[in-house]
Amino acid sequence: xxxxxxxxxxxxxxxxxxxxxxxxxxxxxxxxxxxxxxxxxxxxxxxxxxxxxxxxxxxxxxxxxxxxxxxxxxxxxxxxxxxxxxxxxxxxxxxxxxxxxxxxxxxxxxxxxxxxxxxxxxxxxxxxxxxxxxxxxxxxxxxxxxxxxxxxxxxxxxxxxxxxxxxxxxxxxxxxxxxxxxxxxxxxxxxxxxxxxxxxxxxxxxxxxxxxxxxxxxxxxxxxxxxxxxxxxxxxxxxxxxxxxxxxxxxxxxxxxxxxxxxxxxxxxxxxxxxxxxxxxxxxxxxxx
Length: 289
Fold this sequence. Notes:
Helices cover 12% and strands 41% of the residues. The protein is built from two helices and 20 strands. A hairpin with a 5-residue loop joins strand 19 and strand 20. The chain is elongated, with a radius of gyration of 32 Å. Among the domains are: 33-126, Immunoglobulins (Immunoglobulin-like); 131-236, Immunoglobulin-like. The termini are far apart.
């Protein structure tokens, strides 16, 4: 009851857990959706683009997930860090209307960003919509516990198989996979260190046509270091966490103590001279030797 009074927005239920009289309490705490829309700063509105992938970036609220859509189709995601986001993505032939939204941990979305319209003319006249390779997924973010396998479904369409799939997992590890025909396939990876990782998936068909998709993977647990990616992968498939120790010298206490040390030395010297003079005046031997 006290918990419900403190959190009026929580929905809680309690039931008897076993014959020993224990009671379990389950609650869900709600929060408002992100109030502000992200802003796409690059590329510039009206830009003509001839090469992909293209970098899409802008301003956002830190720690939220940013999703970018091209003509209403999911194009990639990135974790907002220090108030900004950046991702690599491919484009459709011709005009692409880019918009972004940011999402909190409850997957509540913000208002839609500004619309940035760009034109991709690198393939015009040479590749049709059917021939164009496209990568998609239903998960802009997916997670797993440390040392547990993360299985991620993707789908590939267009182009001609077989397809060479490359996944860069953000921890220094890379996966290679061959997919024979268009359709769904799974990429799997195991993270060692908790953190948020930028995952870049690339697909190339037998004719050299390619597609790219960026998403965010989460390895649950307490962060061991600061940054979007935790640890550095090695050839054995493991990750190591580096710890940096910073030593800072505080000069303020020393600056305060120096005048006291000097004054104490000066007063001690004056007192010793005074005692020596008194002994001489009294006819005493100034030194006992």
